[in-house]
Design goal:
Blueprint: H1 8-14, H2 42-49, H3 64-77, E1 81-85, H4 88-99, E2 107-110, H5 115-128, E3 132-135, H6 140-149, E4 154-158, H7 170-179, E5 183-187, H8 192-195, E6 205-209, E7 223-227, H9 229-242, H10 248-258, H11 261-280, E8 285-289, H12 299-306, E9 313-318, H13 323-332, E10 337-338, E11 348-350, H14 362-368, E12 374-378, H15 384-396
The structure holds pyridoxal-5'-phosphate.
Pyridoxal-5'-phosphate (PLP) binds at residues 87-89, 114, 158, 162, 187, 189-190, 209, 211, 221, 223.
């Protein structure tokens, strides 16, 4: 029987399923949105599903565009491999669960880590009976005591902690963890790979919220876990079964944003230091926390660890240390956005008690140093004079 010509319905469905062949490599990686990947040979497909050969099968297993981002991040971090997730929180959840909790392992975590990370760990303790203890990770004797108390799988800390900006000594923590048979996980979101490459300093697991500096444009959420190839295999298991893999369009945008990471961060560090110095002398300010100021408790460590740059976030406490004063400050900002993120092109100010640290009991929040007049400012790439003028105008109204 003659093969009939294809009908219009079939033609449109089959049309443009791949790009026409032609010479020349694109200078920007293509955005491959395809969820599924077709094979001419079932045995070839079998080999890819079975991890006997490299390839793509389905969106949760890996996509060429997300893989391009993963390769770039691994190189940036100086790690063997990177796996990308739909958010920083998804990356943290996957890494901590797979590397410790799923096997009943204990975690020693930084007490003043990002509020939602702490809330997640506390929820796991409550709901799953997870053994997670919180310590001041800048106090090495306290960390040692916590590690010595019971066998521990994971020591978890942030390079520059959100929002108090305490700086952790990654080399010292890696040595401590190693002595007690634990792996060190560092969330380096505030430091970025421009200031710090924790994988090169002994951290087994490096976490980034791609939502922040790496993308930098405030239009994508994403997270990354970097480390060994074994870690990447464990993380891939998570993306396949838990479903938190970073889709290609987001990956493509992060690749684009990431190209200016070093330029943005260098400028933000310079402006942030200027802002911190300015705030230090301001009569309406009670205290400034910035690793670049000589009175910061880990200033020397920060200078050593980050090569003379201190990040783009400045935290401060109003002299009138009240919620009303904080609200007046936020409502008086004109240029800076009162918004809950960091690391964007735009200057953004956050009031942690109503946002990132809302779930933390008020007493514990204040004990950590997040008082009622505490604000966190993420410096953008606007002209520094305009950022300072905006802050001064808002402070006048406090
Ligand atoms: C230090 C740190 N880690 C992780 C996260 C979570 O990232 P995401 O918002 O992309 O889930 C945040 C978010 O603010 C953060 O500040």
């Amino acid at each position: 029987m003659d093969r009939r010509e294809l009908g219009a319905g079939t033609r449109v469905v089959r049309a443009a399923r791949s790009l026409p062949p032609g010479d020349g490599r694109p200078v920007v990686p293509p955005l491959v949105q395809s969820v599924a990947f077709a094979y001419d040979s079932a045995s070839e497909q079998d080999a890819v599903f079975g991890n006997e050969r490299a390839g793509y099968v389905y969106g949760r297993y890996g996509t060429p565009t997300t893989a391009a981002l993963e390769a770039a991040l691994a190189e940036l971090e100086g790690a063997e491999a990177t796996t990308c997730f739909v958010s920083g929180m998804a990356a943290i959840a996957a890494a901590v669960d797979a590397c410790a909790l799923a096997a009943g392992g204990r975690v020693v975590a930084q007490e003043d880590c990002y509020g939602q990370t702490r809330a997640l760990f506390e929820r796991w303790s409550r709901e799953r009976g997870a053994d997670i203890v919180f310590v001041d990770t800048t106090d090495q004797a306290a960390v040692e005591r916590a590690l010595r108390a019971r066998p521990t799988r994971l020591l978890y800390a942030e390079a520059i902690a959100n929002p108090l900006l305490r700086v952790n000594d990654v080399v010292a923590l890696a040595a401590l963890a190693g002595r007690h048979g634990a792996a060190l996980a560092i969330d380096a979101t505030f430091a970025t790979p421009v200031l710090l490459r924790p994988a090169k300093l002994g951290a087994a697991i490096v976490i980034q919220s791609l939502t922040k500096y790496l993308n930098g444009h405030g239009d994508v959420m994403g997270g990354a876990v970097s480390g060994s190839k074994d870690l990447a295999r464990a993380m891939r298991e998570r993306t396949i079964l838990d479903g938190g893999y970073l889709p290609p369009h987001e990956a493509w945008l992060v690749i684009r944003g990431m190209r200016t990471l070093a330029l943005r961060v260098e400028r933000q560090c310079v402006t942030a230091l200027e802002v911190a110095r300015h705030l230090s002398g301001h009569p309406k300010i009670g205290a400034v926390r910035y690793p670049g100021l000589p009175d910061h408790p880990q200033h020397d460590l920060a200078t050593r660890q980050f090569g003379g740059r201190y990040g783009g976030v400045v935290s401060f406490q109003l002299r009138d240390d009240t919620k009303e004063a904080a609200f007046r400050f936020l409502d008086s900002l004109d240029l800076a956005a009162s918004a809950t993120t960091i690391g964007d092109l735009f200057t953004e100010v956050l009031y942690p008690p109503i946002s990132s640290h809302r779930r933390l009991p008020a007493d514990e929040r204040r004990r950590l140093g997040i008082t009622d007049g505490f604000l966190r400012l993420s410096v953008g790439i606007e002209d520094p004079e305009d950022i300072l003028a905006d802050i001064d105008r808002a402070l006048e109204r406090v």
